[in-house]
Amino acid sequence: MFQKLAKKPAWFRRFVNVWPPFVGAGISLESIADDFTEATVAMRLKFTNTNYVGVHYGGSLYSMCDPFYMLLLMNRIGKGYIVWDKAAEIEFKKPGKGTVRAHFKVDDAMLDDIRQNTANGEKYLPVYDVDVIDEEGDVVATVKKTLYIKKK
């Protein structure tokens, strides 16, 4: 049922914003484009996502970035493809304080690249980066997401 309703960005946003792991971590999907080309995710600093030294817990920083490239691509590329998260890496650059944000963009060039690299039926493992930015505009962390994509 979620997959059917999630095809509409407004419903997708509502579901993501009540998903228990995101609610507990203070993560919210602030915006999503009507065509699933872009999304902005935010996380406030609060008790449930603060580490021992009073800054954002690294696991929560990763969680706010975890599903979005996969979910945006699934909605953009269509049912003829398998899209899964394969691997991830996070590099912490500075302590995260206050509200942090990550912006995801899936453009036509990415889709063309995927279609070209899966045309022969082989799997494709693209790597996409996203920066987590603090309120001052500084990069707190960079997440590298490796996806598994293959034609059905």
In short:
The chain has 152 residues and is of the alpha+beta class.
Write the layout of secondary structure elements.
Blueprint: H1 2-5, H2 9-18, H3 20-25, E1 27-32, E2 38-43, H4 58-63, H5 68-77, E3 81-92, E4 100-105, H6 108-118, E5 127-133, E6 139-151
Antiparallel strand pairs: 1-2, 2-4, 3-6, 4-5, 5-6
What does this structure look like?
The chain is an alpha+beta fold. The protein has a single domain, classed as Thiol Ester Dehydrase, Chain A (Roll), CATH 3.10.129. Helices cover 31% and strands 33% of the residues. It has 6 helices and 6 strands, in the order αααββααββαββ. It has helices at residues 2-5, 9-18, 20-25, 58-63, 68-77, 108-118; strands at residues 27-32, 38-43, 81-92, 100-105, 127-133, 139-151. The protein has a 6-stranded antiparallel β-sheet with strand order 1-2-4-5-6-3. A hairpin with a 5-residue loop joins β5 (127-133) and β6. The mean pLDDT is 92.
Q: Could you list some keywords that capture this structure?
A:
DUF4442; DUF4442 domain-containing protein; Thiol Ester Dehydrase, Chain A; 6 strands; HotDog_dom_sf; single chain; alpha+beta; 152 residues; 6-stranded antiparallel sheet
- SSE class: alpha+beta
Q: Distance between the terminal alpha carbons, to the nearest Å? A: 21 Å
Which CATH-level-2 architecture? Roll
Count of all domains: 1
- What is the molecular shape? globular
CATH class: Alpha Beta
Full CATH superfamily name = Hotdog Thioesterase
Helix content: 25-40%
Element string (H = helix, E = strand): HHHEEHHEEHEE
Q: Looking across the biggest beta sheet, what order are the strands in?
A: 1-2-4-5-6-3
Please tell me how large the radius of gyration is: 16 Å
